[in-house]
Each structure stands twice: as structure tokens, then as C-alpha cells.
Amino acid sequence: MEIAIQNGSTIYYPDIEGGVTWETERKGVPGKLSFSVIKDQDASFQEGNAVLMKVGSKQVFYGFVFQKKRDKEHHINVTAYDQLRYFKNKDTYVYSNKRADELLKMIAADFRLQVGTIENTGFKIERRREENKTLFDIVQTALDFTLQNKKKMYVLYDDFGKLTLKNIESMKLDLLIDEETGENFDYTSSIDGETYNKIKLAYNNEKTGKREIYIAQDSNHMNQWGILQYFETIDEKVNGKAKADALLALYNKKTRNLTIKKAFGDIRVRGGSSPAVQLNLGDLITRNYMVVEKAKHTFDEGEHWMDLTMRGGEFIA
Q1: Same domain assignment for residues 291 and 185
Q2: Residue 173 included in any domain
Q3: How far apart are CA 252 and CA 305, in angstroms?
């Protein structure tokens, strides 16, 4: 593993104390690199300086120093983020007849961000006004519309300094995580979180002056779990019955959380990628590809492992 920091025309290879962590998530969070530098006479770098990390010949992270934290032993704890950090900026965008990929390219140009592979998302959004929203939220809303209409999910991430947008189906890995490659896991099943067996939607019809109610429910689960109700007000453009049925199909089940701990490290694994998972969890056995919602890689004393939060099938992150 190699880390370099560029300060102007000077490239500095810091002496690292302790481990290095690299963290990514599927959506809404920039990639993060954390490490501690031993202060020496050559240690001259500033916030905003470029940081890159390689593992062997593989380019893993390219970003910028955002925070330096010092202690009395003259260690400098560094936090660096990739380009997605700038998607925390807020702005207002009004656009029409644009695909999510076209919107992303427009935003990237406005904020002088570097662009790599941006796939055509295939769905034109008729008209949107995004008022005082983060760039993350603006792009994610467009991707959500694409998912609803094309049944295709896309992942936005930074690939070594280049904004990248890919269909999640193309991010499957020829990697198996099982009892041998993962040291431990946390598995929780629950009806205490996002589980609902009754969906109630309301629309205030201004023309008739009446409130229209749409309900979808599962009597068997209501008898088994009690009434767990989801309520929302909708606007006139929404098909109330179809939305209620869709929400019931989504939420009328136990939520299952799976976190895999200290799996053998593989730098191809990042938020949005999909390794194969085969684990006996006690009340079920999972044998399928699962999406990585969060990935934390740790490099320490020649070792590389990763902690993963997974999603797939009945699992949520």
C-alpha cells in the first residue's frame, strides 16, 4: 500500500502510523480515507491537497485533504474525501427533459468536477424543480425516478478521481464471502423498524373538497404482528391504489440486517458492488449476490480486511 500527498509541485510520501481505513457507501456519502502521519521535517501539506492511495499496482483512492488533527506526540490524523464530498453543496436546479446522466454531467460542469464513465440511464425526466437541495439529493431523486420507471438502479461513485455512474447489475464481482472468508457477522431480524402491514394514503381533493383514502393491508400479518401502519399524504399526480399496493409489497415483511466483519480484503469491493454471499444465519441460509451498502477497508501491518453492510433479498442496510 502506498499513500502520496501532493502539495503544489511537491509530492510527499508520508510515514504512516497505525492502520489506514478506506470507506465507501452505495449512495449519499463521499468516499473517505483516514490515516495518521508521523510529523517530520518533510511533512508539509495543507487542507485541499490531493491524496492518492495505491495497493500494489491498483489505483484505489484519489481525493483531497479535508481535515488535519494533531496530538502531543506530533501525529497528524488526516481525513481525506473523494470528489463526492462536493455533492454536499446545496443549490437550486430547474431542468426539463433530461436523463439522470445528463443532469449529472451538467452539475459536474457547474462545479468543475472530473467525469469518467457515465452510463446512459435511459429515462427522460419531464420537469423538476429542486430548491435548496444538496447535489446528492438532486441526483438521487433523478436516479429514483429512473428506478421507478425503468426498474434499473444506478450507482454514483468516484473512481480514482473520476465521477462514475453505472448500472448496479454491472458491478457484480466474482467473489464469494462465506464462513471461511468472513471472520464473523451480525444478523438481526425485526418487525420494529421499516415493517408495515397496513398502508394508508390520503389525497386532499381540492376540487371536491373531500379527502380520498387508499388502503392496502395484509390481514394475516395484522393478526400475527398487530397493526403496523404507514401513513402518507399524496398529490394528484400519484396513482394512490398502485402506490399503496407497491408500498405494502415493499414493507410487509420482517427487516433483516446483515453485517459481515473482518472478511478477507478485496479492493474491488465498494459501496454498490455485489459479491456472492453464502452463510448459514440460523433461521435461513443465504446463497445469492448481495449489494454492499457500506464497505470499510482496513490496512494494518501488512493485513487487509473489510467490514461490510449488506443488502439483498429480504435484507436491508
Answers
A1: yes
A2: no
A3: 35
